[in-house]
Amino acid sequence: MSDDARLLAELHAARALMRTQHAALRPGQPARPSHAALWAHANREPGGPVDLAVVRAIHSDPEAARRYRTLLGAQALAHAPLAAAASDGALMRRRVGPFELEILEGAPPLLILRGPVERMPRLIEAWLGDETVRLDLGTPVDGAILLALDPAVAEADRIGHMLRDPACAVFLL
Amino acid sequence: MAGLGITIRRIEESQGVARSPGTGRRMTGGYDERCAADLAAVCDGRDLSREDRAWLTRVVTGAVRPNRDKPLWDLAHALATLARATDARNGRDLVTLALDPGLATARAVEARFSGGAAADARGPVLGEAWRTSWAGLARLLALAEFVLTAEDLAQFAAVTGWLDDLAAAPDAEGAAFLAKRLARHLSAYRNVHLPLAPLERRFRAILGFLAGRKAFTDDDILAFWRTEMEVGERPGFRTVAEHFVTFEAGAHLVGGLEGLSAPVSLDAHAGWEERLDAALGDLATSEPAETLAALLADWPDGPKILTGAEREDLTDFLRLEPFHRTRPLTTLRAASFGRVQSGLANRLRRGGGGGEVAERATCAEAESYAALQERAGALAAHLARMLRIAAALRIAERDGLTPEARAALEAAEADLRRVRRSGFEDRPTVAAGFAAVEAALLRLAEEADRLKRALATLARQRPLDATFSADRSVFAAAFTAAYAGEAAA
To answer: Out of A162, B163, B246, B465, which could bridge A12 as a Cys pair, Cβ 3.0 to 4.6 Å?
Structure first.
């Protein structure tokens, strides 16, 4: 059977899409960060330079935040939107995919991460409300990563508090 | 009332209006809003040329022959080649390349990848099995961004996972496997976001109606529309005319596949690429780079160079571009009776009374061709006047001009002072307003003038009053048979 009608239909849709591509741009609306900008942000090094426009968009536009988390989730070794088991008190231990995160109280508190040794994460990013912290996890020793949550280091202290909250989302990258 | 709902649904379906399964929203023209937004995100993000936009749009809708999956085969091989060239460790490295707007042109990808082991002077190569040009690679990366980000990233993680698999084995076998996955992915996307079946049915009907002819007349369009109305399809006359616009643009493709031998050579592919590009060529290369409908839809606020009513009239006259130049009679029919028909369809949609529908169906309210011609002439004259004012506002330095040119500009200056429209009081505002639309104004003025001339030629060949009366009987009979009875029931 002839394929002509199908081809014409495909061309008709292509022509209609070419004619209306302008309509997808809504003037007056702030430009959404591009895929590339969100991806670069998802791949940033902790403490490295960031694109402030992207950071602002992620915090002010739920849609941008959703897209960012999708990009982050796709490249994470594991991620957990919320703690697997909700608890009333502070959470001291949680599973993120094949990994286990545990906080040992002390001075300073210690974050311990255990999991399959052949693929240990390099970075951790925590989300709580509209707050985000990203930290370098350092190299594993004897199959576990140990991170001192030193109160003198603002970000380490902060991530310690965030991880204790069951509502905190965790990405291991 | 239930019968009415079915009638409306039938009218809409026959006009190519499908409903998005997710949202229940109406989709017209064979695509939904998601698809338009997905494409726009890639095209705007990479600032693609019109030609590259046309290519990507074509690949997404499937208008590629002999094999619509060929671009995905190419994409999979391009990614395998890049995985080798860049020692990609995983899918993430390939995603970074695919999303990079700095790799959107042939020059940019050549600067980045030439000289490596996976390329020769003309472009990337994957062993003996596959090659493309630098321009081809730039386009394929745009397609890569599309398949990754389509459906607002819904499949991003899945596609990234496939790229992980490719990075682990970036060879011909890995590429072939990825090509299969991508073809399934895009085909599923088309099923959801590109409801082509109603369009295909209509084109099949047009092909059957023309019975092998590729040339058609204004009266063919009308006769085809009447047939469709009679068999109960009830498409809009404008919708049918739009299909003929596409048919004309693509007529050189019709029947082309039959002559193709089974083992398709690369030469055959190249030939098809050119022919398919040609079917979008008028949209891909028009300057300034926007269609007339888009120019009018995006007309900025500011001095009232065009009122809302003038814009609506122009949109109505120019919506079937290029028929306003080449088929003025179809343009008149769509403007006069197309308007009556959409009024009828709206009335039925909102549940109007049977009496009112019957009254509208008589086309007593249809605007005569003579009146439309006069309005088109007035619009052309108005646009020409505005263009002269634009020139006067722009050309401040007039010493080197001929006396005639200077006099014309001065006359336009005097004319500007006579315009009584909002926003024309303050000269800097007017100048800024005209500067913003200069290119669009020039194009619209040209096209309005071409419409005027086409209508004048038509009026010499076919007296407009007699043609209008004859057409009114035809449309009134078709509308009455299609709508009035069922609305009264």
So the answer is: B246
Cβ contact, residue pair B279, A11, below 8 Å:
yes
> Hey, what long-range contacts does A152-159 have (CB within 8 A, 24 or more apart)?
A155/A46, A158/A131, A158/A133, A159/A111, A159/A124, A159/A126, A159/A133, A159/A135
Which among A4, A36, A71 has the least Cβ separation from residue B45? Answer: A36
List C-alpha distances in Å: B462 to A82, B164, B331, B467, B473.
74, 66, 14, 7, 17
- B203/A12 CB distance under 8 A: yes
pLDDT tens for A94-141 read 888 899 999 988 888 999 999 888 889 999 999 988 788 999 998 888
Between CA B194 and CA B6 the distance in angstroms is: 23
Cα distances (Å, whole numbers) of residue B395 to B61, B291, B389, B409:
46, 27, 10, 8
- Domain borders along chain A are 3-75, 79-172
The single-letter code of the amino acid at B480 is: T
| Partner-chain contact B63 A36, CB within 8 Å | no
Q: How far is B464 from chain A (nearest CA, A)?
A: 31
pLDDT digits (tens, 9 = 90+) for B417-444: 888 888 888 888 888 889 888 888 998 9
Return the beta strands (E) in B390-448 as ranges. none
With beta carbons less than 8 A apart as the criterion, state whether B474 and B226 touch: yes
CB A112 within 8 A of CB A145: yes
* Cα angle B387, B389, B392; round to 5: 115
Sheet of strand A144-148: strand arrangement: A93-96, A99-104, A110-114, A144-148
Per-residue pLDDT tens digits for B148-199: 999 999 999 999 999 999 999 999 999 999 999 999 999 999 999 999 999 9
**Amino acid B281: pLDDT:** 77
Interface of B with A in 110-149 (CB under 8 A): 145, 148-149
pTM of the model: 0.86
B294/A17 Cβ within 8 A: no
Euclidean distance between CA atoms A119 and B435, whole angstroms = 59
Chain A residue numbers with beta carbons less than 8 Å from the beta carbon of B44 are 24-25
Nearest by CB to residue A22, choosing from B41, B153, B297, is B297
What ipTM is given for this predicted complex? 0.88
Place of tokens 């494409």: B39
**Which DSSP state fits B28?**
-
* Count of CB atoms situated within 10 Å of the CB of B394: 12
Q: Give the CA distances from residue B366 to residues A80, B79, B335, B369, B464, in Å, rounded to whole numbers and listed in that order.
A: 63, 58, 9, 9, 14
Binary contact (B61, A36; C-beta < 8 A): no
Instruction: Count CB atoms within 10 A of the CB of residue B316.
Output: 21
Q: What is the mean pLDDT of residues B300-318?
A: 89
| Cβ pair B250:A11 closer than 8 A | yes
Distance CA B434, CA B386 (A): 9
